[in-house]
Amino acid sequence: MSCPSLSRPDWCQAIPLPLLEAALLLTWSSGFIGARFSLDYAPALLVVFWRCVVVTVILFPFVISQLRRASPGVLLKNAGIGLLAMAGYLAGIVQGIALGVPAGLAALVADLLPIGMALLAAGVLGQRLAWPVWAGLVIGLLGVSVVTHGALAWGNAPWWAYSLPLLGMLSLAVATLWQKRLPASDSLGLLPNLWLQCCVSGVAFAGLAGAQGSLAPIPSAGFAMSVLWTAGLSTLGGYGLYWLCLRRATATRVASVLYLSPPITLLWAWAMFGEPLSWQMVSGLAVSALGLWLVVRTEARQARRR
C-alpha cells in the first residue's frame, strides 16, 4: 500500500516508525472509548454505520480520480480486505457485546490478534517465527490479561455469542495477512483504500443496523459527537495508521503494538470519565511492553542478518 500523494510522495517514510506506532495506539484505543460514549445516545451498530457514511462522503472528492483508474479486479480485492478488516472485525465485537458478552472479555479476545495472526501465518502460509517472537507474543498477552483481569466476567450471553469476538479478531487477522501479501500492482493508495473499506462496510452495517431499526440519524449532540469521534479518530486515524504501519513493518510487529492498547484505553477512560488508575494497569503495561520489545528486537536482528 502506498502513502497518499501529497507534496512529497514518500512523506510518510520520513516519520519514524515508533512515532507512527504511538499515534496508532492513541487512535486505535480511542475506538473503545467512542463505543462506550456512544452507548448512551444510540445503538452501537447505528453509530458504526454513520461513521462509515461520514468517512465515505468526506473522502470521496479526494479519491474519485484514483478509483476511476483502478481496475475492477483491484477494487474487488481491496473491497474484500475492507469487509474483513472493518465490517467483519467491528461486527463481531459489537454484536457480541450487544448479545451479552461482557465488554472486558470481548476486548481480551480482540487483543488475541497477534497470536491469531501468528498461528494463521504458521498454519496456513507456512511462515516460521523465531522462538523469541513467540515468547514475546505470549508475554504481551499475559500483560493484557493482567490489565483486563478486573473487567473479566462470563456474562449471560448465548453460548454461540462468545464466538463472535473471536471471529471478528480472526477476520482482521486474515485481512492483515491478505493486505501484507497483496502485490504492489494490486494496492490502492491509503485514502482510496480507506474510502473503499468504509463504503463496502457501510453497506454491510446498513443491513445489520437496519434489521434492528431505523437507519435515520438521531438528532442529538451526543450522537453527532459519537459519530464524529469514531469517524475521525478511530477510522481515519486508527485504521489509516494501522495500514501505514503495516506498510513499514511486519504484520507480527504491527499487531503486537496493539497489545499496549488496553492500558492506553484505561488512560483515555481516566482522562475522560474519571475512572481510577491502578498499579495492576501499570504492571500489565510493563509486561506487555516487555513482550513487544522481544518481538521488535528479534525481528531487527533477523533483518540485519538478511
TrEMBL record:
PANTHER family: EAMA DOMAIN-CONTAINING PROTEIN (PTHR32322:SF2), INNER MEMBRANE TRANSPORTER (PTHR32322). The keyword Secreted does not apply. It holds the Pfam family EamA. InterPro entries: AA-Vitamin_Transporters (IPR050638), EamA_dom (IPR000620), EmrE-like (IPR037185). Coiled coil: none annotated. It is found in: Membrane. Keywords: Membrane, Transmembrane, Transmembrane helix. It comes from Pseudomonas chlororaphis. Signal peptide: none annotated. Residues 24-147, 160-296 form the EamA domain. It is a multi-pass membrane protein. This is Membrane protein. The chain crosses the membrane at residues 12-35, 41-63, 75-98, 104-126, 133-153, 159-178, 190-211, 223-242, 254-271, 277-296. It comes from the Bacteria. Its main location: membrane. Belongs to the EamA transporter family. The keyword Transmembrane helix applies.
